[in-house]
Amino acid sequence: MSEFSRRNFIRSAAVAGLAATQADRLLAAEAQKPDEAAAAPDAGPADQPPVVVDAAEYKTLQAAFDALPATGGMVKLPPGTFEIHQPLYVTTAETRIEGSGAATHIKNVNQEGRPALVVQPPTRATDRRARLWRVQLGNFRISGNENSGDGIHAEGIEEIFIQGVSVDRHGGHGIYMEHCHENPRVADSMITYNKQAGLYLNGGHDIVVNANHFEENQDAVICVDGYNLCMNGNNLDDHLRHGVVIENTYGSVLSGNMIEECDGTAVILDRDCYGITISANVIAHDMGGGVDLRGAHGCAVSANTFTLVHAFGVRVAQGSGRITITGNNFCNSYLGEGRTKRPLENPNPVLIDIGTGIVLEDTRHVAVSGNSFSGLDGAAVRAVGKCGHVLVSGNVVSDIHRRPAPGDAKLQAFDISPESEVTLQMNLTE
Questions:
Q1: Do 316 and 323 form a contact (C-beta atoms < 8 A)?
Q2: What confidence score (pLDDT) does residue 41 get?
Q3: How many CB atoms lie within 10 A of CB 9?
Q4: Could you write out the DSSP letters of every residue in 96-164?
Q5: Would you say residue 273 has pLDDT above 80?
Q6: For residue 5, pLDDT beyond 50
Q7: 8 A C-beta contact, residue 427 and residue 394
Q8: Could you give the 3-state DSSP secondary structure of residue 225?
Q9: Is the pLDDT of residue 62 over 70?
Q10: Given this model, what pLDDT does residue 61 score?
Q11: Residue 342: pLDDT over 50
Q12: Counting beta carbons within 10 angstroms of the beta carbon of residue 133, is it exposed (0 to 12), middle (13 to 18) or buried (19 or more)?
């Protein structure tokens, strides 16, 4: 058994006589990393009906979780700060863990890379096909440190639902889901300052990520080997690398998100993505680029605003094709009447006025239409290598080449390599 301390344990009137003091100690069940564990704690009896468990009446949070029968129920967490040295396990289906808002704070002080909260079937270590259904986590804070592991580590949970949870400062991912195939949902949560991804989705479908805040994680969201990701209305800010990275995933939509100030790229599609729409997002001030299609086919990039984006607004790389780019605005900080919000020159590149357009690299079957390009450093569209079957039509271009490359005497709106086959028609340039 390993210990975790409890501070400021505020109890209801019914249990006020047992209010915590600094000398109180709570014991968490001994556990290992999920990938090393021999077995998670057994679920309770299978013949009991679901119950409501008041964790304030138990010596440990783990004891409260273990009090649930196999049929599940609800564990109500009281206010207080609970320092844990080993992972807590939830191993029952049809279960909700409900905190008292941010006043319920599970604090992982482990220094050996172990997660704070593990949600998985009790037989997961020996049966990788084991599944639990309908586990919900809501209304508590779970924090870690740079040497701890994931905040919430879930494996084999179908219809997992995480809502109203603050997950911050973990040495691993904020939330990691492995093979939570059916309908995983993360909503209305604060996922911040985690050393790896805020949310890592490994193998899932019909995924909803909605109305969350992501800030200063390594990456905000990584989705790998999945499909039907629906990511809407999230706010992503100040990430140390990328915003959203999607690999080997299809049939998904990213819309209505604010993706700002990534040190890397705002959105990356790689490794056989197809049938994905990126629409109506504001992609602003990202240092490594806007939307990077590294391995994507049959995708649409539409009605987004790319402002103050460095490197490129949209890049279609050699491994991508059959792409539609339409109705977007690529711009700088122009305010009208010759004024810009930011200066053209500043020693700090984060503070300069900048705009970038579209780069096509050895790609084919791309339609670029109905976009507005203004206040750009270079050309609106640049095709390098051997691009083919590209249509650039009906775009409006103004105030470009504000930072022309050395030796660039042409200063054309559309910089097309001699090897490329690109049709230009009905574009307005100024």
A1: yes
A2: 61
A3: 18
A4: EEE--GGGEEEEE--SSS--SEEE--TTTTT-TT--EE-EEEES-EEE--TTS--SEEEESEET-EEES
A5: yes
A6: no
A7: yes
A8: coil
A9: yes
A10: 98
A11: yes
A12: middle
CA dihedral 200, 204, 210, 212 (to 10 degrees): -20
Encoding tokens for residue 171? 């040495």
Question: Count H helices, E strands: the chain?
Answer: 1, 49
pLDDT digits (tens, 9 = 90+) for 105-164: 999 999 999 999 999 999 999 999 999 999 999 999 999 999 999 999 999 999 999 999
Neighbours of 305 (CB within 10 A): 17
Strand-pair category, 199-202 with 73-76: unpaired
Give, in order, the Cα–Cα distances in Å from 152 to each of 10, 157, 350: 24, 12, 33
Q: What value does the mean pLDDT take over residues 50-67?
A: 98
Are 153 and 180 contacting, i.e. CB atoms less than 8 angstroms apart? no
The residue written with tokens 């479908």 in the block is 205
- Coarse DSSP helix, strand, coil percentages of the chain, rounded to the nearest 5 percent: 5, 45, 50
The encoded tokens of residue 282 equal 């504001």
Q: What is the mean pLDDT of residues 391-397?
A: 98
Percent of all residues in the chain with a pLDDT value above 70, rounded to a whole number: 88
Q: What is the CA radius of gyration of the chain?
A: 25
**H or E element: which one contains 311?**
none
Residue 332 structure tokens = 């700088």
Tens-place pLDDT, residues 16-33 = 332 332 223 333 333 333
Amino acid identity at 245: V
pLDDT tens digits along 92-119: 999 999 999 999 999 999 999 999 999 9
User: What is the DSSP track for 70-96?
Assistant: TT-EEEEPPSEEEEESS-EEE--SSEE
Instruction: Specify whether the CB–CB gap between 152 and 128 falls below 8 A.
Output: no
Distance of CA 72 to the CA centre of its chain: 29
Q: What is the distance, to the nearest Å, from the Cα of residue 137 to the centroid of all Cα atoms in its chain?
A: 18
Measured distance CA(323)–CA(379) in Å, rounded: 20
Tokens of 21: 């003091």
- For the entire predicted model, the pTM comes to 0.89
Task: Report the alpha-carbon angle 388-391-393, nearest 5.
Answer: 160
**Cβ distance 334 to 311 under 8 Å?**
no
* Residue 69 contacts residue 46 (beta carbons within 8 Å): yes
Q: What's the rounded Cα separation, in Å, for the pair 191 and 197?
A: 9
